[in-house]
Design a protein that fits this description.
Number of strands: 9
Order of helices and strands: EHEHEEEEEHEE
CATH superfamily: Ribonuclease Inhibitor
Number of helices: 3
Helix content: 10-25%
Number of domains: 1
Largest sheet: 7 strands, parallel
Strand order of the largest sheet: 1-2-3-4-6-8-9
Shape: globular
CATH topology: Leucine-rich repeat, LRR (right-handed beta-alpha superhelix)
Radius of gyration: 15 Å
Length: 154
């Protein structure tokens, strides 16, 4: 299984063959865009651009652990993705776009600041088995959301 631990390594390995992109606690998420208000800080724009500009035929897992990101990179929602680890960040919202991850089996959003989750989108992911929302202090599952059959960690 090809694992890339940096954007450069992913490109050298040919992004189309990489199965795991692990940018946990990575300097690759530090913004270098002079027009961005997060210059020299953690920012999703660099990750989003990198994901958009490359071909990811084999990618099954993305890890962006511990990067102090405050939102989910919009281009991270890929059809063939099976595991997504965004734990230990500062993310406040899991958007409806998560529904594009049709193959997703495991979602780790633990240790964030989640207050808003697109619950209906999660319910419509047929392969989703495990959802980790531990250590999100303000998060509760609404009464009308039935997550039975899924391993939900709160």
């Amino acid at each position: 299984m090809l694992v890339a631990t940096s954007m450069r390594q992913a490109q050298l390995l040919k992004t189309a063959t990489v199965r795991v992109l692990d940018l946990s606690r990575s300097p690759d998420v530090i913004c270098m865009n002079m027009m961005c208000d997060k210059l020299e800080g953690p920012c999703v724009c660099r990750v989003a651009r990198f994901l958009e500009q490359n071909q990811w035929d084999a990618l099954e897992e993305i890890r962006l652990v511990g990067n102090r990101l405050d939102q989910v990179p919009p281009s991270i929602f890929m059809r063939g993705l099976k595991r997504l680890d965004l734990s230990d960040n500062s993310i406040k919202e899991l958007p409806l776009d998560i529904s594009r991850c049709e193959s997703l089996e495991t979602l780790d959003m633990s240790k964030n600041r989640l207050v808003k989750v697109a619950w209906n989108a999660l319910l419509n992911l047929p392969n989703l088995k495990t959802i980790d929302f531990r250590e999100n202090k303000s998060l509760t599952i609404p009464d009308n959301v039935d997550l039975s059959g899924k391993n939900v960690l709160l």
